[in-house]
From TrEMBL:
Key word Transmembrane present: yes
Membrane-traversing stretches: 21-40, 60-81, 102-127
Domain of life: Eukaryota
Protein name (Swiss-Prot/TrEMBL): Uncharacterized protein
Gene3D superfamilies: Rhodopsin 7-helix transmembrane proteins
Keyword annotations from UniProtKB, A to Z: Membrane, Transmembrane, Transmembrane helix
Keyword Membrane among UniProt keywords: yes
Length: 176
C-alpha cells in the first residue's frame, strides 16, 4: 500500500504554519507556568500559603492564562510578515517559516530557553523535596539518605533532555 504525501501550498501552508507555531509555543508556556506555580509552592511555602489564604492566587492564575494565550501570538505573526510559511521536506505536514532566522528567533530559541529554565526548576523542586525527605529521615535515623536509582535516572534524563534541546536548535537549519 502506497501512502501519498500531500504538500500544502498557499493559504493552507500559511494556516498550518501559524497553528503549529502558536501551538508549540502555547504548550511550552503552559508547561513553564505550571512548573513556576509548583516551584513557588515548594520553594516558598509560607508565602504561597499566605496568598492562598487571601485568595490572591486566582489573580496569578488569571494572569498566567491570559499571558499563555497572548504571548505566543508574536511568533506566527513575525514569521508570516517576514516571509510566510512553506511545507518542510519531511514530514510534509509540518510547515516552517521561509526565513531561517525568523524560525530560529521566533520559535526555537524561546522554546529552548523556556525548556532550560523549566528543567532547572524541576531539578530544584526535586532537590528540595529530596532534601526535605532526607531531613526527616535524618531526624529519625541520624544518617543521610543517598539518591535512589529512580531519582538518579530522573536527574540524568532531565540533564540529557536539556542538553539535547539546547544543542539541537543550533543544528536544525543550515547556516548561511
Amino acid at each position: 500500500m502506497h501512502v501519498k504525501a500531500t504538500r500544502y501550498k498557499g493559504k493552507k501552508a500559511q494556516q498550518t504554519g501559524i497553528i503549529e507555531a502558536y501551538g508549540i509555543l502555547n504548550v511550552t508556556l503552559w508547561w513553564i507556568f505550571n512548573i513556576c506555580a509548583i516551584f513557588w509552592k515548594v520553594q516558598f511555602p509560607f508565602h504561597a500559603r499566605y496568598y492562598d489564604q487571601t485568595n490572591r492566587t486566582k489573580y496569578v492564575h488569571i494572569t498566567c492564562v491570559v499571558a499563555a494565550i497572548i504571548l505566543p501570538l508574536y511568533a506566527p505573526l513575525a514569521i508570516a510578515l517576514k516571509g510566510g510559511f512553506i511545507p518542510s521536506r519531511f514530514p510534509p505536514i509540518i510547515c516552517l517559516g521561509r526565513e531561517v532566522d525568523a524560525n530560529f528567533y521566533a520559535v526555537l530559541a524561546p522554546i529552548t530557553i523556556l525548556l532550560g529554565i523549566g528543567t532547572t526548576m524541576l531539578l530544584l523542586i526535586l532537590w528540595r523535596i529530596r532534601q526535605h525527605m532526607s531531613d526527616q529521615s535524618f531526624q529519625r535515623s541520624r544518617n543521610t539518605v543517598l539518591l535512589s536509582s529512580a531519582e538518579s535516572k530522573i536527574f540524568c534524563g532531565f540533564s540529557v533532555l536539556s542538553l539535547y534541546w539546547s544543542t539541537s536548535t543550533l543544528n536544525v537549519f543550515p547556516h548561511h
